[in-house]
Here is the input.
Amino acid sequence: MNNINSELTRLIENQKDNFPLEQKFFTDKQIFEEDFKHIFSNQWVFIGHISRIPNKGDFFITEIANESIIVVRDRGGDINCFYNVCRHRGSHICTKTEGSLRKLVCPYHAWTYNLDGSLSNASMMDDNFKKEEWSLIKCNKNIFEGLIFINLSNKPSDFNEFISPLKPFISLHGLGKSKIALRKVYEIEGNWKLALDNFHECYHCHPSHPEYCDVHSKDYIQSYGAGSNTGPESLSFKILLNDWNKKVDKLGYFRGEYSENKFSNFYRSAERTPFSGGRLSETKSGEPASKLMGKFKEYDGGYTTIGPSPFNSLIMSNDFATCFTFLPKETLKTVVELMWLVDESAIEGVDYEKDNISWLWHETTLADKRIIEDNQKGVLSKEYSPGPLSKMEIGLEKFKNWYLEILKKSINQPSY
Ligand code: FES
Ligand SMILES: [Fe+2]
Here is the structure.
């Protein structure tokens, strides 16, 4: 067993139930690299929506740890994902984060690639040089309802198997016929697991998120999830949910919940939940915020939350969707990208206002950035040691156990 594996084995054995992770999990560069290899790289993660690159030649770049992925629409209208690595001597090819281009030209020695990844020109190479052998390396990609999912593994899990339980939840909202109303990027000086721990519990909502607490009822926050996946049960919330389920059945819309019922390499969850207090949308006033999306013909007073993997989340009202992507960058740096989707026919200023649809999660993410960064500072101290979790942090414990299980497996099968 190599050094990192024996250290991980020791740390995992020391780990106590209902306590957060040991310090090194949040501060150690080698563990970050193991996480990236065994956790992030094995997940299907959406990194954008097709409406970000509507025209031929449009592209954007997504960066995760040391990887940079080019997402580009080719001449035939297909979306391709390539590793941003020149096949000559490895330079990054795209150095801008987004734009539009006719060909991908490496800035170093000008090898030039078509938008389908094939090499179109490399000057002064030998006569026996075969261009067709030097196409860009494709990254595994799948598009579902306009969401562009990538998977960095050499042996990716089956996409259909991955997406199948989430399909009815996503399809209800018609994201395939939506467009990006707004994107915002938040750089957090903290380890990706601290960022996600924060996202997996609402114990901090009362002290840190007045906006969230205005929109969502105390009963929901304390139970934090229809299926009580992430918090203790709340009887009053269950009653609200039961009544709402009957109403949704009458309207004929999909409802329900999904979570992994046994250990899986996937970490998926989904649920449909009622708002309280007569709200129709996740806005400050609770009033509708844009055109109805997908299968909705009228407001059902609820919303849908989906976690396709630890690195994504979708929180969808009937009329707009907030999409989260968490990208681990460095041991102490995580980027959170938020994208707000509205129906493709909705017009800004007429049907929706950016500030209205983004208000809750923009304010909440700014607060989360601050508390995660403060958390990271304390976790770096020589005096940090994990303290006991509250019963409102069940979600965090669940995520930790899943994470440790994957690491344990990776120690026995150290492959990508
Ligand atoms: S490294 Fe790209 S052309 Fe040389
Ligand atoms: Fe938060």
